[in-house]
Amino acid sequence: MNKLLTISAIFVLLTFAGCSDSRTAGGKGGADSTHTKEFITKISLQEPDRALAIIDTMEMNKEALPYELNYMRFAIYVNGYADNKMAEYYAKQVLKDSLELQKDVKCHFTILNILADIANQNSQYAQSIKYSKAAMEVAQKNNIKEYEVSATEALALSLIKLGDQESGFKLFAEGKDEIVKSLDKNNDFQNINNAYSFVGNYMESLLNAKRYEEAKQLIPDLTNITKKMEQLDNVMDGVVEYRQLHTYGLLMKFYDKTGNARESEKYLTLIKKSKLAGTNFVEALVSEHYLDVNDVKRLAEITASIRENAVANNDTLSEFFVEYVLDYEKYISKTRGNYREAFEKAEVISSVKDSIAKRNSEEDGARLAKIYETQEKERLLAEKDAQLSRHKGIFFVVAVVLALAFMFIVMLLMFNRKVNRRNKTIVSTINQMMEKEGELTRLRLNDDAKNANPDEMRLMQCLEMLKNDMPMDDIATASGFTDAADLAKKFYAHFGIHAEEYRKWSRQINEQEKTGMEEAKQMRDSFINSMSHEIRTPLNQIYGFVQLLTDPNIQLSDDQKRQYNDIIADQTTYMTRLINKFLEISEYESSDEPLPCEMVSIAALYSEVDSIVPRPAEGVELTFSNRRETDTLQTNGKGLSRILQCLVGNAVKFTAEGFISVECHTGADGETVFTVADTGKGIREGNEESIFDRFFKEDEFVPGVGLGLPLVRKIARRMGATVELDRTYASKGSRFRVSLRA
To answer: Is the pTM of this model over 0.70?
Structure first.
């Protein structure tokens, strides 16, 4: 029945406050002094519920790393609740976060070492050995010899319990000198505590194995370690007394076993005078002494005292009550020859053990419920983090879209300025030409004034008047001619053109100038209207759905959130493609230099186009064929691929049934010809060239801004190729023909 009351719990309590570093002192920078490991350590014995509540708050506020929070929970269940099962659960949670834990050697080692102790106490010796070896590996990896020796303690105890006493005692013997020697270098509590636990368990194991001579050799070391413990400052209340009592109990047991009654009584007296006299621990030590010396009378007295205290404290349903009351009462009855009473005690013991097992089962159920509750809390936190990440992703996408929209608007303004500058340049050039004409006329008149024919000077004066709407008679009178007939005759004789024809020609020139300016203005207006509409539509959708997703007052299902996220992604992709196409056409317009040529595989070209263009409608067959003798041609592969992508993409967009075919063959003049034919809506007659104008759309309700075919023609011109709508195509739909020079 003798049991060494191990000090693992106190070891954990005093260790976990020092684990890690200042990172766990609280993410609030000292705003709440209770959110620290030191404060949680202080209250974990008396107020474990409060300590756990603080840890939960720290977890919600992300004030510490996950493994640190679970380590504190582990220590509280070991110390505050003495609940090894819950402690074991949280210890395993700590071990899951291996990357962070490996940086914290002290906590990593402590977790493994205490798990080995818990497994040993629960008679799970194989599990204890596994954890002990893992703790030794941590110590060896970090070259901490005292940790390595301390880890052999649970390993040695497990080997002894499994019957391999020689191996167990050999580990104890090899480690004892090393761990005692370490006290000369380091006298902090943790090191002394390790040494005390190691030597104490070593001596207890030797006494149980009746190896008294070897146990006797440990007495000086155990006494010396106890004195060092007494000299420590700032140690928790009761720790020193506990160590003293533990030492007295071991020495009393040694002298009981070796028959030295005088020394045994000395330590019994010290135990009874202790500050902890009357506690279960002291009464257990005293009762074990009377059992060892076979003093049945005094054993009966102390057992009766323990029973009385247990009944008063309503603690009759515990393993301590069974071991130190019922078992002793059965032993006493049997020793006195009262076998009937001993048999009755045995039945009571069996009944109490059944009740304890039932209670333990209920407690296990409560533990499982608490574990499930913890896991559900962790799942909700993970979902919250995932939702926050999704919202961050949405905001990022919106920011990117807005940035792209801003860039696009800037490009619109730059394009508008470019068009305006071009128009101004045209008008300025015309004005300069007219000024030069007038200046040259004046110079000619000045230089040749003396020699010039008066009729010629009057005719030059008529030129400006004819550009206006003045009647011919008024012009003739103003210029000094007899009448309109005289003016017409002399005008024709001098210039070789009739005056009316000159007037008509001048008006045509003016009309062309006006038409050019109007076309430029229309092109600009069309561009701005089309692009503003195409950008505004997806932006409105993106903005609306982001508002829905981020409004805390609107509750959305997961399916709705996924649907809205998909719409935002689709609209963002559409805007990105639109901007990319405009940038692409601007790039090809920026220069007139021919694009470089290379050897292009037609099969690879088809494969690339097929992988990029959208899939046709259901039932529409898309085919690629090559009827040339060779599978390669010399051209610009990137440009040709882009041309085919645009043509096939348009065919997919406008073809609801039938087929889409892409063919390559050699033309009549030896050129390479690609044709893209479909059975779609076709092109209305008269629009053969208009479809290649920028922003032209046959159907305003079809998405797009009319940049695809203009891009095709721009690329083709840089490649020295031609693109045209084949009006000889007799089938339904349309066929485009791309001709590349040989």
So the answer is: no
Please, are residues 648 and 721 in contact by the beta-carbon 8 Å criterion? no
Residues near 194 by beta carbon (within 8 Å), at least 6 away in sequence = 11, 146, 147, 149, 150, 179
Calpha distance 247→268 (Å, rounded): 11
- Cβ neighbour number for residue 677 with a 10 Å cutoff: 21
Q: What angle do CA 50, 55, 61 make, to 5 degrees?
A: 130
> Residue 264 corresponds to which tokens in the numbers above?
């045994």
Taking every pair of Cα atoms in the chain, the longest distance, rounded to a whole number of angstroms, is: 169
Q: How far is CA 353 from CA 85, 317, 346, 511, in A?
A: 19, 8, 10, 114
> E strand or H helix at 626, and its extent?
strand 621-626
Residues whose CB is less than 8 angstroms from the CB of residue 27 and which lie 6 or more positions away in sequence, other chains included: 58, 61, 62, 63, 64
Contact by Cβ (8 Å): 115, 78: no
Residue 120 clears pLDDT 60, i.e. is over it: yes
Q: H-helix or E-strand containing 356?
A: helix 339-447
Considering Cα of 62, then 66, then 68, then 74, what sign does the dihedral take?
A: positive
- Evaluate whether 334 touches 344 at the Cβ level (below 8 Å): no
Quick count: other Cβ atoms within 10 Å of Cβ 669?
A: 9
What is the CB-side half-sphere exposure of residue 3 using CA atoms within 13 A?
12
Per DSSP bridges, beta strands 672-678 and 659-666 are antiparallel
527 CB burial (10 A radius; 0-12, 13-18, 19+): buried
Q: Is 615 helix (H, G, I), strand (E, B) or coil?
A: coil
pLDDT digits (tens, 9 = 90+) for 421-466: 655 555 555 555 556 555 555 555 455 545 556 777 777 777 777 7
Proportion of the chain above pLDDT 70, given as a percent: 81
| pLDDT tens by residue, 276-323 | 888 888 888 899 999 988 999 999 999 999 899 888 888 888 888 888
Residue with tokens 């992709």: 573
Dihedral angle sign, alpha carbons of residues 105, 108, 112, 118: positive
Question: Between helices 339-447 and 84-96, what is the axis angle to 10°?
Answer: 30
Residue 664 CB neighbours (<10 A): 21
**If you write DSSP's letter for every residue of 165-232 in order, what string do you get?**
HHHHHHHHHHHHHHHHHGGGT--SHHHHHHHHHHHHHHHHHHHHTT-HHHHHTTHHHHHHHHHHHHT-
